[in-house]
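subagent[fold] <- orchestrator: predict structure for attached chain, return tokens only, no commentary.
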Amino acid sequence: MAPKYNPQWFVPPQAVRNNAKRGLEMRQKTGRGGLTPAQASNAGAGGKPIGSGVQRAVNLKNGSSLSPQTIKMMSAFFSRHEQNKDSKRPDGSPGAGKVAWELWGGDAGRRWADSVKKKMLAADEAEKNKKRASKSSTSK
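subagent[fold] -> orchestrator:
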């Protein structure tokens, strides 16, 4: 049986890798934007961990295949932080929101994560329909 999701969907495209690399460079230069894994493990509501921008950037930059759960997390991050993506400091340098946006893959990361999420939802729906059809044909 073929896997429900195409494994190639989860490998970040080059534009996403480049943005994550730029985000890491910006963070190193400015000292702001994105959480480390240790910070992220304590930052979620009700003690629930949230995604680490730094870890995500390393995974993206390296072209690591991501999990379906990580794609959903990325899509949620972009939805929550759209208003911060162009933040600047008074001196004109990138604000923490801009750095974090790039760590997660920037605009290309958002397009990619949303596209993969949409494919996952379609595959889930197709699987449900297949099961329903199979169930109804065996109950006749």
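orchestrator: received. Logging for downstream: The chain has a mean pLDDT of 87. The chain has one domain: 9-138.
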